[in-house]
Write a structure and sequence with these properties.
alpha+beta; three-stranded antiparallel β-sheet; 40% helix; elongated
Length: 569
């Protein structure tokens, strides 16, 4: 909503951004005590986080682009400085005290894992938390302190009493006779966030969590933005624990996604049943990773056998909504331009008058402009150098779409065969071929075995597997660099050009031409022989006997005229 000052002045409009400290000072000067802001921890987006709640991209100082993998950015921002925390503890001179140890990586790891017991040898003593709100009195007694918590009104009713060692250190704001609220930290030490969650609300717990993690990094000289911690903290809060299943499909104590739980409550209420009841819980990163909806991602991270067994028993379906599961199955990840909104994006081109939308489907892999492309683009495309490595005969005189190069001819269907999927070449060699752009049979045309052996990592074993795969599809001739075939086909087309004036205007030397003529009924010298094998290979075979006869006649005529001239002399 709009940020409105007490006098009715609108300071900031809805969906605007707080960009600098001066904006905050402006609200303070106006007398505002609190405003409603979007935050990651309260974002209601079911998948990921929304652009408004995340805010600015810290690398561009602009609103984050839709499709940005903010989870990966957060993990890297937290994990990379973690190595500095560890190294700084190791290389610091002198005797390491408790603070030095607890201000390093073990503390952060313990915070994100949130397991049951606290190892005091590593993390130090667990902090004392106020179990109730009230009046706190601190009385020293021999080698310990007696902490007594009474009600705030008349201080007569004792709410809690406990003893702590005299070696503990109290928080700066804690002193004898102060007022505390439930969940306030009384002594210094490691905060058990599960216990804190039982004493206060979930928002206060996660605020304390974010500040605690940030304090560890700040104490080591690492500046870490809150939003990176909040991204991970939000995932730790995605689950709720069922305390009363009611008429729902859940079981007592089951962990379910909070958004799925909300949908189930709405469904049960609509049917007139007893709605289930649940309470928010904080799960560690390990627990979160093993309890996400994607069983593919869970199995790839931890408890592979257990996750797969549970998924099989429950008949789970993975809808491939996260990054890792799509990587596992080899699909485009749902991030960046892989999102659906980008797939339906419009193509525009820039003119002198500005950007103009282009209507119609567009493919970034298209090798030529579509018919609906603007005239300006077509004119520019005609001036660009053309690709001469390949000659495709799709829609050329009714040919079958064969592709040729350097005298070799293969059908379009066989040219699309993949080395790994169709030829059976090992993944190890397929990756090496792919690095230099060889993924299909069509990419092999024109390359000899010597050319392939020059590829880094390719040896005799790889060539042997490749030859076996090509031989199984009758394509072994692709690797045989037979220059005689190319010369033969060049001569064939040259003869066709000389003796078939009604034939095609474009003669492609160095490649085999389509088996057709403009006038099929006319008997022309050099017409293709009706040979099924030759037709299948897409090669032109000339009637060499007719050609020899014609050449002999020309030679005999020249000899006769020369002899006649000699007699006349």
């Amino acid at each position: 909503e709009d940020v409105v000052a007490p006098d009715g002045t609108v300071l900031f409009e809805q969906d605007g951004y707080i960009e600098k400290v001066a904006d905050i000072q402006k609200m303070v000067d106006a007398g505002l005590k609190k405003v409603k802001l979007r935050a990651l921890l309260t974002c209601r987006s079911k998948y990921g986080v929304c652009q408004k709640c995340y805010g600015w991209d810290l690398s561009t100082r602009r609103p984050v682009a839709i499709g940005t993998a903010v989870g990966i950015i957060a993990a890297q921002s937290i994990g990379e400085p973690g190595t500095q925390l560890t190294m700084r503890t190791i290389h610091s001179g002198g005797v390491a005290g408790v603070d030095d140890i607890t201000q390093g990586l073990p503390t952060v790891s313990r915070m994100f894992d949130i397991v049951g017991n606290v190892n005091e040898k590593i993390l130090g003593r667990e902090a004392e938390l106020a179990p109730y709100s009230g009046h706190l009195s601190i009385k020293p007694e021999k080698s310990e302190y007696v902490l007594t918590l009474t009600d705030s009104e008349d201080h007569t009713r004792v709410l809690d009493e406990r003893r702590v060692p005299a070696s503990v250190r109290f928080m700066p704001e804690i002193e004898d006779g102060c007022e505390v609220r439930a969940g306030d930290q009384i002594t210094k030490g490691f905060v058990n966030f599960r216990n804190l969650r039982k004493l206060t609300d979930i928002e206060s717990t996660m605020h304390t969590f974010v500040e605690s993690v940030k304090d560890v990094y700040t104490s080591q000289g690492v500046d870490l933005n809150d939003k990176h911690i909040e991204v991970l903290a939000r995932q730790m809060l995605r689950r709720v624990q069922i305390t009363n299943p009611g008429d729902s499909k859940y079981l007592l104590g089951q962990y379910v996604d909070r958004y799925e739980f909300a949908d189930e409550v709405e469904r049960v209420a609509r049917l007139g049943g007893q709605a289930p009841v649940a309470e928010p819980v904080i799960l560690g990163t390990l627990k979160v990773a093993s309890n996400i909806d994607s069983w593919l991602s869970s199995a790839s991270f931890i408890r592979t056998a257990g996750v797969l067994t549970e998924a099989a028993i429950e008949g789970k379906v993975d809808h491939l909504l996260d990054l890792k599961s799509n990587v596992i199955v080899g699909k485009k990840i749902p991030a960046g331009t892989g999102l659906k909104p980008y797939a339906n994006a419009k193509l525009t081109y820039r003119t002198a008058d500005g950007y103009v939308d282009i209507d119609g489907p567009a493919s970034p892999n298209a090798k030529s402009l579509p018919e609906w492309a603007p005239v300006e683009l077509k004119d520019l495309d005609e001036r660009l150098p053309q690709q001469l490595d390949w000659a495709g005969y799709d829609e050329f005189g009714g040919a079958d779409g064969s592709f040729t190069r350097n005298g070799h001819t293969i059908s379009a269907e066989k040219a699309r065969l993949y080395l790994f999927d169709d030829l059976g070449v090992s993944q190890r060699w397929t990756n090496k071929f792919s690095e230099v752009g060889i993924e299909t049979v069509g990419d092999l045309v024109g390359k000899s075995e010597e050319d392939l052996l020059r590829i880094d990592g390719i040896g005799a074993k790889a060539i042997e597997e490749l030859r076996d795969g090509l031989e199984a599809h009758d394509l072994l001739y692709i690797l045989e660099n037979n220059d005689d075939v190319a010369d033969e086909e060049d001569l064939s087309q040259l003869l066709q050009m000389v003796f078939s004036p009604d034939g095609p205007d474009d003669i492609l030397l160095g490649t085999s031409a389509p088996t057709h003529h403009a006038d099929a009924d006319e008997e022309l010298l050099g017409a293709p022989i009706d040979d099924k094998k030759a037709s299948a290979n897409g090669a032109i075979n000339e009637d060499m006997a007719s050609l020899d006869e014609l050449l002999n006649q020309l030679v005999d005529t020249d000899d006769a005229e020369e002899a006649k001239d000699n007699d006349g002399e």
